[in-house]
User: Which sequence fits this backbone?
């Protein structure tokens, strides 16, 4: 679609019209020269024909030299003048035959292609007037009456004019629809040359990034790609020029306000490999929503595995953590110890001071005990006022030292009891936790505020 639009723009510019008009007298002169060389009807003033053709060639060459200065009004004048000169050539040849009528056809084609139908009709009317005058003054009409020749010429050129103007009008309507689609598309449509510069862009680029088309065309595309995405973009471009096709490639592009926009690209190389057709969608909001969703999912997952009051891992997290540590201990044959720690007389404190005060004790103990552990240790809120401490790669004696240090840091004038159990590499999770809980029971039964250690089963 974009290629059609560009082609139409190229052929609708004044410079192309001017080149076509300037070429018309040169082509006419060449046709006359060919007709003089080849066998042709005798009669007429061949010298005058040759002089007229030479003058046409000279004027055409002069016009070609100054073609950049020829405006549309001058194009009309040139076509009309060439038609008049062709009428003179017919008169000077003395015979109204078809060889110079070809110039009339060319003039009709040019006026019908480049101008609206009403202008093409005006040019054709002038042509038919000139031809009528030439027929009236020519010596011979080669066996046909002047009226017959004029009528056949008028009908033939009118059909040519109508066909060409209809084709151009149909193409113009198609291009207008394509242009409307191009401009109104929410996607960022563009073409780029092989040097990496934008050639044509629709208004979606301005709406999304803030740049004018001229600003985007002023620098190579890659200069506004995020530095972290440039290498991947260059690799994708190289693949495209090797015959590949870009589908859903994403990179970040600098907007005029300094922000980075995520673009998702689809592009392909033109069949003649002279241009790249591209379509980009601004997915910045999609990326933001995805990031927010990932963050929300992370929060939900964190809530599912962490205690909301203390922020410590909860029992659900322990269900994943403890089997994993047991498997690691079995592979490495390192000791693994667990301890259940319970705040002494917490129910009495809670009933006396209220649940809010009890919650503050739980939070304070969680902070203090977590801070007393080593980096590889983990403390979990096991339930109520009970906490579980996981001590990987720790011998029983060392585990007891860690737990005594933990108990010593119990805050808010509280005390705690702890039950310690070391894994025997064979028992189940429930059995290990059962032994730790039994040791905690012994500590409480022994007067609380102490550590009790379960014996390793035989």
Assistant:
């Amino acid at each position: 679609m974009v290629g059609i639009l560009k082609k139409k723009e190229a052929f609708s510019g004044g410079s192309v019209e001017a080149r076509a008009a300037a070429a018309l007298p040169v082509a006419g002169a060449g046709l006359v020269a060919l007709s003089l060389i080849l066998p042709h009807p005798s009669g007429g003033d061949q010298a005058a024909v040759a002089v007229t053709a030479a003058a046409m060639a000279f004027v055409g060459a002069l016009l070609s030299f100054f073609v950049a200065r020829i405006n549309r009004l001058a194009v009309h004048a040139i076509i009309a003048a060439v038609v008049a000169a062709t009428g003179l050539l017919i008169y000077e040849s003395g015979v109204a035959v078809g060889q110079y009528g070809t110039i009339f056809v060319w003039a009709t084609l040019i006026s019908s292609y480049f101008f609206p139908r009403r202008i093409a009709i005006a040019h054709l009317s002038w042509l038919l007037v000139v031809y009528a005058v030439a027929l009236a003054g020519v010596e011979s009409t080669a066996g046909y009456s002047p009226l017959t020749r004029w009528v056949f010429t008028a009908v033939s050129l009118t059909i040519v004019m109508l066909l060409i103007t209809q084709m151009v009008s149909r193409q113009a309507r198609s291009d207008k629809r394509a242009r409307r689609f191009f401009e109104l598309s929410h996607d960022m449509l563009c073409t780029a040359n092989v040097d990496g510069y934008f050639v044509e862009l629709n208004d979606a680029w301005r709406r999304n990034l803030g740049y004018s088309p001229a600003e985007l065309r002023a620098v190579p595309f890659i200069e506004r790609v995020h530095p972290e995405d440039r290498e991947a973009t260059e690799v994708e471009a190289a693949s495209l020029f090797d015959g590949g096709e870009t589908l859903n490639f994403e990179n970040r592009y600098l907007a005029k306000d300094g922000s980075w926009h995520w673009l998702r690209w689809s592009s392909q190389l033109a069949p003649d490999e002279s241009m790249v057709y591209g379509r980009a969608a601004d997915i910045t909001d999609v990326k933001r929503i995805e990031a927010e969703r990932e963050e929300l999912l992370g929060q939900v997952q964190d809530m599912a595995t962490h205690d909301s009051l203390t922020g410590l891992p909860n029992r659900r997290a322990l269900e994943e953590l403890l089997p994993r540590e047991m498997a690691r201990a079995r592979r490495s044959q390192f000791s693994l110890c667990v301890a259940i720690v319970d705040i002494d007389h917490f129910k009495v404190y809670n009933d006396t001071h209220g649940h809010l005060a009890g919650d503050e004790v739980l939070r304070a103990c969680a902070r203090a005990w977590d801070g007393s552990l080593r980096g590889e240790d983990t403390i979990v809120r096991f339930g109520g006022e009970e906490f579980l401490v996981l001590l990987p790669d720790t011998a029983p004696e060392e585990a007891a030292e860690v737990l005594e240090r933990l108990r010593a840091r119990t805050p808010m004038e509280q005390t705690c009891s702890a039950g310690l159990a070391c894994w025997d590499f064979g028992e189940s999770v429930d059995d290990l936790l059962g032994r730790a809980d039994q040791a905690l029971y012994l500590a409480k039964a022994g007067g609380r505020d102490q550590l009790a250690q379960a014996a390793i089963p035989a």
Observations:
- DSSP finds 16 helices and ten strands in the chain.
- The domain at 188-286 is CATH 3.30.450.20 (Beta-Lactamase).
